[in-house]
Amino acid sequence: MEPLVAHFEQYYKIYIAVVICLLPFIIIFRRQALPLLTYSVETCIYIAVFHGVLSLVVWLGRQFKVASAMFDKSDPGWGTPTFLFWRLEEYNPRWVAYFELVVFALIAYAVLRYRPMRTQKTKMRKPSLKKRPAVSRGSVRRTR
């Protein structure tokens, strides 16, 4: 967490300037900008949750390998970076980084594919067919 706090403390003026410059465009083009922002936030949440689950799985695999080794109880050093996930050289084993990038792309595609950008109008419901009360043979009178 400390690297993120240090990064924001160092570059907070740039972030404020970018927000001030983008705010008029967001207000003017809010019909297009707000769905894009919500999609971005939603995708980031899904990616963060997946990164946490993947880190947990790698950690569990590492603990299992150490605990289940018969003779060589050395630590394999498997792990993923918690906050600096963009540093691909810190992933061990290396293929986990590429697997995570592929899943990130699949998450972004799924959000765009299955979450419509426009709000959908609800269709009018068809009136339900009312059932008539059942009539038994004995209750019907024949008139001739």
Unreliable residue runs: none
Sketch the major β-sheet.
none
Over all CA atoms, what is the radius of gyration?
29 Å
Distance separating the two termini = 92 Å
Brief overview, please?
Helix content is 60%, strand content 0%.
Report on the architecture of this protein.
By secondary structure, this protein is mainly α. It has a domain at 30-118. 60% of the residues lie in helices and 0% in strands. The mean pLDDT is 83.
List the helices and strands and how they pair.
Blueprint (H helix, E strand, L loop, with lengths): L1 H27 L1 H39 L26 H20 L30
Helix pairs in contact: 1-2, 2-3
Question: Any descriptors?
Answer:
single chain; 144 residues; mainly alpha; flat
